[in-house]
Design a protein that fits this description.
The complex is a heterodimer. Chain A has strands spanning about 10, 20-25, 35-40, 45-50, 65-70, 70-75, 85-95, 100, 105-110. Chain A is mainly beta. By secondary structure, chain B is mainly β. The model of chain B has no long low-confidence stretch (mean pLDDT about 95). Classes of the chains: A mainly beta, B mainly beta. Chains A and B meet through strand 7 and strand 8 of A and strand 5 of B.
Chain lengths: ~110, ~120
């Protein structure tokens, strides 16, 4: 049972905008920034968004993050077939004193 | 360019202890935090433990009683020991770097560890 909650799946057609939600609590998202990771099958997760809304160098601006209260979201605009992957939200949890991850959301391009 | 490489046995017997090492090349252990993270086949990601370059540690409460993390700054590697293994510990184990801002900006490729007799 993950501390953070995400929908198991999301989908869209090429060019559409897809949004993935991540719900937490006051001990994690409510007090700390949220990070998002993208994972393709057989590979390690890759940092996609950090500090809730910052993109590492090389990440397209089609990917954006936001946070409000104890929830966060990742938006993918101009969806492409290359975006088919699993997406994980994560944050530091002050109560557990450790990192917590969401269960992941699989994005499918129809 | 900094590169992380996990190494360890691919197969471990139940009740035994798993030992993994993460070698850091192309950069220094300092001044970062270093973590072990695992992912059971077909499942999500779970953080295991972190250690700083100065040796400060923190463990996932669910694994704390079975885990030890250590660092060797002179040889640029850090290690994980997980004891009393069961089949539930079968997973891909990743090492990762936290620049001190509670996110992982660099990951190793991962190593699959299977617990089976």
């Amino acid at each position: 049972q993950s501390v953070l909650t995400q929908p198991p799946s999301a989908s869209g057609t090429p060019g559409q905008r897809v949004t993935i939600s991540c719900s937490g609590s006051s001990s994690n998202i409510g007090r700390n920034t949220v990070n998002w990771y993208q994972q393709f099958p057989g590979t390690a997760p890759k940092l996609l968004i950090y500090s809730s809304n910052q993109r590492p160098s090389g990440v397209p601006d089609r990917f954006s993050g936001s946070k409000s209260g104890t929830s966060a979201s990742l938006a993918i605009s101009g969806l492409q077939s290359a975006d088919e992957a699993d997406y994980y939200c994560a944050a530091w949890d002050d109560s557990l004193i450790g990192y917590v991850f969401g269960p992941g959301t699989r994005v499918t391009v129809l | 360019q900094v590169h992380l490489q996990e190494s360890g046995p691919g197969l471990v017997r139940p009740s035994e202890t798993l030992s993994l090492t993460c070698s850091v090349s192309g950069g220094s252990i300092s001044p970062y935090y270093w973590s072990w993270i695992r992912q059971p086949p077909g499942k999500g990601v779970e953080w295991i433990a972190y250690i700083s370059d100065t040796g400060s540690t923190n463990y996932n409460p669910s694994l704390k009683s079975r885990v030890t993390i250590s660092v060797n700054t002179s040889s640029n590697y850090f290690s994980l020991k997980l004891n009393s293994l069961t089949a539930a510990d079968t997973a891909v184990y990743y090492c990762a770097r936290d620049p001190g801002a509670s996110y992982f900006d660099l990951w190793g490729r991962g190593t699959l560890v299977t617990v089976s007799s």
